[in-house]
Amino acid sequence: MARKKIALVGAGNIGGTLAHLVALKELGDVVLFDIAEGVPQGKALDIAQSNPVEGVDATMAGGNDYSVIAGADVVIVTAGVPRKPGMSRDDLIGTNAKVMAAVGEGIKTHCPDAFVICITNPLDAMVWVLRELSGLPHTKVVGMAGVLDSARFRTFLAEEFDVSVQDVSAFVLGGHGDTMVPLTRYSTVAGIPLPDLVKMGWTTQEKLDEIVTRTRNGGAEIVGLLKTGSAFYAPAASAIAMAEAYLKDQKRVLPCAAWCDGVFGLDGLYVGVPVVIGANGVEKVVEIEMNADEQAMFDTSVEAVRGLVAASRELMPK
Ligand code: APR
């Protein structure tokens, strides 16, 4: 059986890390596309030369023409600009909405059967632009945010409790911005919900609140430290988990920016919710119950996403 083809649109920090992870995990052959001449070709060559050392088989190619993504099974999109210190993800919209429109056209022309994962920010609006311009089914276009936000939450919780990250599961819903909704009730250590762990004296409510705030600001914390760009290792790992769920039909339950129409009280909006990812793409949206406080936070987040989508609509080619 031929290997799967993974197209990476954007060969910057995240794109390069994605290519390396695809190779290490032997998920398929890689093509990198970027407008920067030489960059996708150079990264492809460099990673290809690491494959004999790692003992993995995957071809690596790079190009500056959309034809390189032809026939891809999975496309992961990171094209655009990242944040600089002091910027919010929303500040990127002017540049990145136009980039997403071009990428959407490229996917429509060259690989309309692909499963598409968007990472470019502001995420929930950019995945909407990508879907609109590519014309793919909504189930085949999804945004990576919740896996990353939940991973950040899990990291901080595991540190606080001094337990393995493997035994901490966490749920973060809503938009990938300051209004994201870390759901403590649905986050557990080996099945024990966080509010119970507070009662058991494992932590305090104050400490938990601090961790929630740190999770919300997780991206900005890294931008502040790096100064020249934003996080890339954890975002890449998170998107790879989603791609792997699709390619291996794992039916994983992951929080993703997915199309919500007739669920969660929404009538057509990309926002972070739990979904099942398998061979058909987004196979199910898992409609969990929220209490009044959680619903209020989710509603605020939804409103923020609606604003960004409206702004993106204005920026799109007529
Ligand atoms: N088409 C293709 N590639 C493009 C385009 C375009 N129109 N415009 C920019 N790029 C490329 C750049 O040349 C660069 O190589 O996108 C790449 C982006 O890489 P980085 O600047 O290193 O950014 P990265 O850290 O990878 O983040 C990319 O993901 O998490 C989000 O907020 C982040 O929106 C940002 C994106």
In short:
The protein is of the alpha/beta class and 318 residues long.
Task: Explain what this protein looks like in three dimensions.
This protein has helices at 13-24, 39-48, 51-54, 93-110, 123-134, 146-161, 194-199, 205-216, 218-226, 233-247, 292-315, and strands at 5-9, 29-33, 60-63, 74-77, 115-118, 141-143, 168-173, 181-189, 192-193, 252-261, 267-278, 281-285. The protein has 318 residues and is α/β, with parallel strands linked by helices. The chain folds into two domains: 5-144, Rossmann fold (3-Layer(aba) Sandwich); 146-315, Alpha-Beta Complex (L-2-Hydroxyisocaproate Dehydrogenase, Chain A, domain 2). The protein has a six-stranded parallel β-sheet. A three-stranded antiparallel β-sheet has the order 7-8-9. Strand 5, helix 5 (123-134) and strand 6 (141-143) form a beta-alpha-beta unit. It is globular and about 55 Å long. The termini are far apart. Adenosine-5-diphosphoribose (APR) binds at residues 9-15, 34-36, 39, 78-80, 82-83, 92, 96, 99, 102, 119-121, 229-230, 232, 235. Substrate binds at residues 83, 89, 121, 152. Catalyzes the reversible oxidation of malate to oxaloacetate. It is an enzyme of class 1 (oxidoreductase).
